[in-house]
Amino acid sequence: MGLNGTRGILYAGILATAFVCSAPSAQAAKHLAPIPAATVALMAAKGTSPSAPILMRVFKKESELEVWKLGRDGRYLHLKTFPICRWSGQLGPKMRVGDRQAPEGFYSVTPRQMNPNSSYYLSFDTGFPNAYDRARGATGSALMVHGTCSSMGCYAMTDTQVSEIFALAREAFAGGQPAFQFQAYPFRMTAQNIARHRTEPHIGFWRMLKEGYDRFEATREEPAVSVAGGKYVFGPSRNSEREALAQARLAEESRKAEALIADGVAAIRTTYSDGGTHPTYAALARAGSASLGMVSRPEALALAGREVTVIPARAVPPLPPVLVAGLRPPVQDAVPVRPADMSIFVFASLGYGVGEPPKPAMSLISGSARIIGQGFSGAAFQLASR
């Protein structure tokens, strides 16, 4: 029997044992629900299959969970984005038991972490605490992705959503994937977001996460993650061309963030009373809609995701007008010169204050007198806004 088949039987055995030991008979089939037909068709259209490996990413601020599938070219492709119904705490990593923080970092989910008998419909354990969390003394356990729109440090989905997510993971395990990577971020790790959150106490941690984020964005390979010296360490791609792409993106994103800060982009802090929800569910949760079932602390959602300006954006003074000098060749044989016939364009900042008349053009454009004197006449000047 092949390795994939052996792993599939092992995983099925794990779920079956858990079910026989403690699951009520009425729940016998929920963990075996098939992947929806529309999602299977989507996989086929994208060049992947139910048995192909998966990878998941979550973003707190955007309240989204992404599922990625390995394509035939050996690169992960985006399959679906699920809106998160509820997460708790603030942006930032989990530090201790009872802080209501949903974890951030890089985690590994194995078949043994899948729970078909969850009190919250279905669930899987994210793997917190991992080696990085333990190195910094973080405490806590059972930080899950589960059904029911209620969170005490978990990423809570609707029952329908978690059923599909569970099925996607189940089929990947059955296809031979020993574990899938679960990446958890405070927000989409763009240069703009890093620059805007630069005064946050967790910015050093977030910049560390960004390397893994950028590597995945550049290569579409699962980042090789380890922990050394109390820090996440990301190994290079085995493919030299993809590693070059990763290095180029890392350098470009760093340059972009530095340029934004130098240009005076505002620094903000995003605050929450206790976590957030996706806009899809926000109004329903605040209204206590029965369609979501139990919602944890719905009153806190009114204070979710508020951006507080820590450092205002630096005002950029308006640029002065520009003098555009179009130098035309002399008129010959009484043939009118069209704008397209202009042969030289000279640009110069006028450099005068509001209400002041323009300075003589010859004093602004170095060498213009010499150029005009060498065969050009009828220079046309006009003011243009920059």
Share of residues in helices: 25-40%
Secondary-structure-based class equals alpha+beta
Euclidean distance between termini CA atoms: 71 Å
- How many helices in DSSP terms? 10
Radius of gyration: 29 Å
Mean pLDDT: 84
Shape: globular
Give, in order, the helices and strands. HHEEEEEEEHEEHEHHEEHEHEEEHHE
Q: What is the tally of beta strands?
A: 17
Oligomer: single chain
Task: Describe the largest sheet.
Answer: 5 strands, mixed
Low-confidence stretches: 1-7, 12-27, 342-386
Looking across the biggest beta sheet, what order are the strands in? Answer: 3-2-1-10-5
Query: How much beta, percentage-wise?
Result: 15-25%
Structure description:
- It is a single chain.
- The chain is 30% helix and 21% strand.
- With 386 residues, it is of the alpha+beta class.
- The strands form five sheets. The protein has a five-stranded mixed beta sheet, with helices on both faces. A five-stranded mixed beta sheet has the order 4-9-8-7-6, with helices on one face.
- The longest helix is centred in the middle third of the chain and has 23 residues, at 240-262.
- The protein is globular, with a radius of gyration of 29 Å.
- Mean pLDDT is 84; it is low at 1-7, 12-27 and 342-386.
